[in-house]
Amino acid sequence: MTGGAYMKLGACWTGTKILASFLLGKRYYSKQHFDVFFARSIDPWRYRSSAVASRRREIILQTLPRRSYASMLEVGCAEGWVTTHLAQRAERLLAIDISSVAIERARVECRDFAYIEFKEEDVAEGIPRGPFDAIVCAGVLVYVPTVDQEALRDRIVDELAESGDLLLEHQSRDYPGEVPGIVIHEIFARHAELQLLSFQVQDDYCVSLFRKGFG
Ligand SMILES: C[S@@+](CC[C@H](N)C(=O)[O-])C[C@H]1O[C@@H](n2cnc3c(N)ncnc32)[C@H](O)[C@@H]1O
Questions:
Q1: Could you read off the pLDDT tens digit of each residue along the chain, which spans 215 residues?
Q2: CATH superfamily label, 29-212
Q3: Is the dihedral of CA 61, 66, 68, 69 positive or negative?
């Protein structure tokens, strides 16, 4: 079977499971979903061996305009693959994820950075209290349903400090149950307090950098 056909089959199967969850009144991309997903394998997205993932991480780091941030929030830290690098750009870093399995691995991965705080949090339920000088959401907001995206955006912007930087990095592609990165970008671009500083697309990922305020 070709890679394209395999992708289509996978997407159909995921679509069926999402429909079944919906009919049962459950959220598909739940804590349980991600805990089971991480428990099945270490590095489930194969970041460590992927040139695309390395380029993606490099773009995130290059796009953040300031050398160092007093306080940073990373939403959806997974096993800490980007976190170790963000930690070198922050005096304080709070890294959150919906999955406790991922958080435990991230703690081990980031053991050399005592100033990173980890918390199990579901962003669909709430955002930790700021203000944060930088907020990084990479590959995570796609899992929050479209209808909840505006409210989530408003909560994120509320916790961003005045003149703070917000970096979004998401896959542009439409995958069942996920919100395409470009749609998320457009929702954030409509926020009255955000100014778009840059927008890039590479390897099917879009990266947006916003700043709060217009001063
Ligand atoms: C594709 S990984 C991205 C990891 C990392 N940010 C990166 O870019 O390499 C998505 C992560 O988001 C987490 N996640 C998904 N939905 C979430 C939610 N509602 N709240 C917090 N984290 C969530 C998942 O558990 C997973 O670790």
A1: 666 776 677 777 777 877 777 776 677 899 999 999 999 999 999 999 999 999 999 999 999 999 999 999 999 999 999 999 999 999 999 999 999 999 999 999 999 999 999 999 999 999 999 999 999 999 999 999 999 999 999 999 999 999 999 999 999 877 888 899 999 999 999 999 999 999 999 888 999 999 999 76
A2: Vaccinia Virus protein VP39 (3.40.50.150)
A3: negative
Q: Which of 52, 98, 179 is the best mutation target for the ligand 1 pocket, counting ligand atoms within 8 Å of the beta carbon and taking the most?
A: 98
Q: Domains of the chain: which residue ranges?
A: 29-212
Give the torsion sign (CA, 51, 56, 59, 61). negative
Pocket of ligand 1 contains residue 59 by CB under 6 Å: no
- Give the C-alpha separation, 28 to 68, whole Å: 37
